[in-house]
Design brief:
Number of domains: 4
CATH topology of the largest domain: D-amino Acid Aminotransferase, Chain A, domain 1
Shape: globular
Strand order of the largest sheet: 16-15-10-11-14-17-21-18
Strand content: 25-35%
Helix content: 25-40%
CATH class of the largest domain: Alpha Beta
Largest sheet: 8 strands, antiparallel
CATH superfamily of the largest domain: ATP-grasp fold, B domain
Distance between the termini: 40 Å
Structural class: alpha+beta
Number of strands: 21
């Protein structure tokens, strides 16, 4: 097989790395990628929104499969354009990607199909949102309705915090107020072919910037897998929910092909849907992909073709992984790149038994930071404590001036 991964972050590095380890894969390309991926994939100088260029590359390199990593090109219809050209694509259509592209649509979808989810109110203007924020129950989750790279969420505890959130989020478009849920949050994944969902693992990520869940929301500061407090009964409920969602999407004429991501709150009454995403998570992919065993590429191709078999399942290695994201000074509001990363070697790796996935790096001399979330370093171990110890040893080695990372991952 010859595979193209679309995207440039640490998630896409992890996808390329995992595909490169498949016996059935002879070639992995990435567009546009970043320098840290060059040991596992050839890079193409093509943007994720360049459908014509990507289609030409598929034909030029006789590629068998395209895996689309980030959400924005999926919501914009890249999957549709490539499928029209006859390309097997692992990634949903624009219609199916609305499950992430609109928070209000996703919540309404859950309620239409009897999936447990918080009550939600969509406000189309800043004035409407300000008025609702003065009377709604507190605390309340306030979200940008559209894509915000994981940063468009505020949990408002007071009226003042609610009004500040509206002032920040409303200029970008409609705002959604959601009932606040209490419980433990997890990210659950399935590989989908339009009608079937193969369970692809559960992780727990850490979204706020600072230890103790303080500071602004980010795109994710790390994740670990599996999640010890998810018991057999809860896992079965989550697997059923993922299949329910895929079946409901097909029922609505929006068959979902690709990786479905359910952000769930485990409440005293069972899992409730906080959000759906239309792709593998970042940073969850960096922790889950190392746990997937076997040659997974043929299964991904079957999913892209709508040909998963009823009895298909994923195989997971024993043990745990824990990934820590190293971010630049100023992230998430105003990242200040350009710091030298002294700890990683010529091939972009560490002299330690840890995985290093590059999110935003440059290599035109020394390795330097080139964006907000720079590296995800992943430790592996027989238990969560040993995976955590290895991840933090790697984070210390890979550190750079002003690096931001949470000190309480996995606790």
């Amino acid at each position: 097989m010859r595979v193209l991964v679309v995207g440039s972050g640490a998630r896409e590095h992890a996808l390329c790395w995992r595909l490169s380890r498949c016996a059935s894969v002879d070639l992995v390309l990435v567009a546009p990628g970043n320098p840290g991926m060059e040991t596992v994939a050839g890079r193409l100088d093509l943007r994720p929104d360049d459908a014509a260029g990507l289609l030409a590359a598929v034909r030029q390199h006789a590629l068998d499969l395209v895996v689309i990593g980030p959400e924005a090109p999926l919501v914009a219809g890249l999957g549709d354009r490539l499928r029209e050209g006859g390309v097997p694509v692992l990634g949903p259509s624009a219609a199916a990607a609305e499950i992430e592209g609109s928070k209000s649509w996703a919540m309404a979808f859950c309620h239409r199909h009897g999936m447990a989810a918080p009550q939600a109110v969509r406000c189309c203007s800043q004035g409407e949102a300000e008025a609702y924020g003065r009377t709604c129950a507190l605390p309340v989750a306030i979200k940008a309705d559209g894509l915000m790279s994981g940063k468009g969420v505020v949990i408002a505890q007071t009226r003042q915090e609610a009004q500040a959130a509206v002032a920040t989020l409303a200029p970008a478009g409609p705002v959604v107020f959601e009932e606040f849920l209490r419980g433990r949050e997890v990210s659950a994944f399935a590989l989908c072919d339009g009608s079937r969902a193969v369970f692809y693992g559960i992780a727990r990520d850490h979204k706020p910037l600072l230890a103790g869940n303080r500071g602004p929301m980010t795109g994710g500061m790390g994740a670990f897998a599996p999640v010890p407090d998810v018991d057999v009964t809860t896992r079965a409920q989550i697997e059923a929910l993922l299949q329910h969602a895929v079946s409901a999407m097909a029922e609505e004429g929006r068959p979902f092909v690709g990786f479905l991501f359910a952000g769930l709150m485990l409440t005293t009454t069972g899992p409730q849907v906080l959000e759906f995403n239309c792709r593998f998570g970042d940073p969850e992919a960096q922790s889950l992909l190392p746990l997937l065993e076997g040659d997974i590429a043929p299964q991904w191709l079957r999913a892209a073709r709508g040909q998963l078999e009823a009895a298909e399942a994923a195989r997971f290695a024993d043990g745990f992984t824990l990934g820590v994201v190293l971010a630049t000074p100023g992230y998430p509001e105003a990242p200040r790149p350009g710091q030298v990363i002294p700890g990683i070697g010529p091939a972009g790796q560490l002299p330690l038994p840890a995985l290093v996935f590059h999110g935003a790096t440059r290599h035109d001399g020394p390795w330097t930071t080139a964006g907000g979330r720079v590296l995800t370093v992943v430790g592996q171990g027989a238990d969560l404590a040993s995976a955590r110890a290895r991840a933090y040893a790697a984070a210390a080695t890979a550190g750079f001036a002003g690096a931001q990372f949470r000190s309480d991952m996995g606790q």
